[in-house]
Structure formats: C-alpha cells, structure tokens
Design brief:
With 193 residues, this protein is of the alpha+beta class. It has two domains: 2-77, no CATH class; 90-190, Microbial ribonucleases (Nuclear Transport Factor 2, Chain: A). It is built from four helices and nine strands; from the N terminus they run βααββαβαβββββ. It has helices spanning 5-28, 39-53, 90-100, 110-115, and strands at residues 2-3, 60-63, 74-77, 107-108, 131-137, 150-154, 167-171, 176-179, 187-190. The relative contact order is 0.11.
C-alpha cells in the first residue's frame, strides 16, 4: 500500500489518541467496566482503516504487520528527482525515465544536434550542457525483447570529448536497460520483459 506523508502524520496522531484513551484507567488504577480490545489489535485496525482512507500519491509506503505483536510502522521513500533537473548518470537518467516516462530536458536528438552544427563526437562545443538522446534504437541483433519500440541516450557524456560506449536503451512500455559496452550486453534496470 502506498501513502502520503500527510497520511502517515495523521496515522501517528491517531496512535496518540488511541494511547490517550487507554491510559486514563491505567493511570488512576480504577477498574473499567467496559471490555477493551488489546491495544495492539485496536491500533492495527484503526491505523489500517485511517491509512486506507488517506491513500493518495505514490511517494511513501507504510507497511503494517498483521501479527498480534506490537506494531512498527516502516516508511520507505522512493527516490525522487526534480522533473526540470539535469541528469547524466546511469542511475539518475534511468530513474528519471522510470518516474516521468521521458528523458530529462538536457537531452537532444541527433537531428537537433546537427541543426546546431554537430557532426559527431562531443556535443559540448555545439550545445554546452546537453547530451545526445531520444533517437530510435533498432534492436537489430534482437538482444532485447522484440515487438517494442526502443530509444537510446548517451550516459556520462556531459562535458566529455566523445560520446563513449555507455547508453541507456528504453522501450515504449517501461523497460529500461543499460549498456556500458556499446550494445554488446545489457543490464535490465527497470521493468519486466
């Protein structure tokens, strides 16, 4: 289940409320006539209901164990990248494509680069701060799953003298691969073939 930070904060407030409701009788030592649920079961049930109601954007995940033991909330945050940022590393570009479904703004196609005077090699003299990316990748050797459209982009070339051998190749349906040997081998980074 995926929940926002606001939902987690509301759940924490709910935990405090439940604890406050169960503490007065314990503090005064007075017996209560009302049967009370085991606090951990009650917390689990109320937290689950509250968090389910607050389901929103996929930014943070809250896992709640269903055992009868005391419960622990674990918040796992998916890495985020600024949609308008400049990215050139394998990890950042792959994550950006995974999150936004396209290349970062600092990539231009070969055709766009040629309009700026580029004829191959380093793009830096023609388009400082930009990298080559967005052109079709043919998959002619069929090293990747077929029946998909693929696109490619250079990796770690910002300011470099050549385009190098590192590329990310990504499909139109979420597969993202990395090659550091100019298409000889591929490592799947995201998606399921």
């Amino acid at each position: 289940m995926i929940f926002t930070l606001a939902a987690c904060e509301e759940a924490a407030e709910l935990v405090l409320e439940v604890l406050e409701e169960t503490e007065p009788a314990a503090e005064t030592g007075e017996p209560t006539t009302e049967p009370q649920e085991e606090p951990t079961e009650q917390l689990t049930q109320e937290l689950t209901e509250e968090l389910t109601e607050e389901l929103t954007e996929p930014t943070e995940e809250v896992l709640i164990s269903e055992s009868s033991e005391p419960q622990t909330l674990i918040v796992m945050t998916e890495p985020q990248l600024d949609e308008n940022g400049t990215y050139t590393s394998k990890e950042d570009v792959a994550l950006y494509i995974h999150l936004y479904g396209r290349l970062p703004k600092n990539f231009i196609t070969k055709a766009e680069a040629r309009k700026l005077g580029w004829e191959g090699g380093s793009l830096e003299p023609y388009a400082p701060g930009m990298c080559i990316g967005g052109d079709r990748f043919g998959n002619y050797e069929e090293l990747l799953p077929t029946d998909r459209s693929y696109f490619e982009c250079d990796i770690d070339t910002l300011g470099a003298r050549s385009r190098g051998a590192k590329r990310i190749v990504f499909s139109d349906d979420g597969l993202i691969y990395y090659t550091d040997d100019h298409y000889e081998t591929f490592e799947l980074l995201y998606g399921e073939p």
